[in-house]
Amino acid sequence: MKTKDKKKTVDLLAEAYPDARPALIFSTPYQLLIAVMLSAQCTDERVNKVTAELFKEHGTPETMRALTQEQLEKFIYSCGFYHAKAAHILSATQDILTRYSGRVPETFEELVTLAGVGRKTANVVYSVAFGGNAIAVDTHVFRVANRLGLAKGNTPEKVEEGLKKAIDESLWSKCHHYLIWHGRKVCHSRNPDCDNCTLAGVCDYKKAAEERNDKQKSGKRRGKRP
């Protein structure tokens, strides 16, 4: 995708999703951190149902630490990978209490030192909770960025790097949400709705599909010649 098309893509995304925002429900940076950790390979809808119960009595580092791992696992069982997630949540909570005086660290560099917190989680918390400029690459962002041609890469890190080069820094956080919404509403994993996509005119995936169709039609016409 050409540079001018990348800018146009961002503009079209902004027009299509002016109200794009996080789907996870939270009240504090700590609750956002826990929700994002639970969202790994789990839907935001499921996470919101789980945290609605969990945060009633355990929505702070102090109250979360009161839970045993087994007790926490019962709360988060339906999110999947509950053993690892519970262990990471409790370890990260302990770090927050002992190393950061009960407050979630506000920098990306500090966030990734917490147990179970990778680049995606750190970028989301840094961006959403603290207003930092960051692009978190989840499965939606990874898929949509590659398909559009906005950023190509076979790892989340490479896609993140490409997006940062393609998009003005002041728009990084917003574009993260634009791409997620587009992935959920139009650019589905298995059956992307290209016919109703406002980005079809600049999309590498759509252009490649049209070229394949043209070649197939051309081959069929040649095959019919006497």
Written description of the protein model:
With 226 residues, this protein is mostly helical. The protein is built from twelve helices and no strands. It is elongated.
Short description:
With 226 residues, the protein is an all-alpha fold. 62% of the residues lie in helices and 0% in strands.
Features of the shown structure:
about 230 residues; 12 helices
Coarse shape: elongated
Straight-line N-to-C gap: 41 Å
Assign a percent range to the helix content: 55-70%
Order of helices and strands: HHHHHHHHHHHH
Mean of all residue-level pLDDT scores: 94
Over the alpha carbons, how many angstroms does the gyration radius reach? 21 Å
DSSP strand tally? 0
The largest pleated sheet is described as: none
Low confidence ranges: none
Please state roughly what percent of the residues sit in beta strands, choosing from under 5%, 5-15%, 15-25%, 25-35%, 35-45% or over 45%.
Answer: under 5%
Question: What structural class should be given to the helix and strand makeup?
Answer: mainly alpha
Number of helices: 12
